[in-house]
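ARCHIVE CARD
Drawer: 12
Card no.: 0347
Subject: one protein chain, sequence and derived structure
Cross-reference: see card 0346
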Amino acid sequence: MGVGRLPFKEKVTGSPPGSGTCNVRPYGTSVNAMARAHVVLSEETLRRVDANVGKRERSRFIEDAAREKLDRIELEKALDATFGVARGPGYRHWKDRRTVAEWVRRTRRTEGR
């Protein structure tokens, strides 16, 4: 791995010489699953991307960054949707940190038996 390159798990398949494509893709996806998109970035952001991963790695970096951001958004939505689910008489052991710690210790002692 060269300086400024990120470790990507990818499969490289052959392309006809001079075709202008390299068919580098994440494991488990097909080349047909990829699509082109016109993305506008500020000059500062583009400069920082290029400085850190290089011009030839832009697409892959932006793909990974978008996936990470989408994962965080989806996690936040899931947390918001389930907030407060563990309330009520069936969850008295989750009332506060002290009761949670007691419940965890008690559960661990009984699971080993």
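Annotation on reverse: The CA atoms of residues 86 and 94 lie 8 Å apart. The helical segments are 43-53, 58-82, 97-111.
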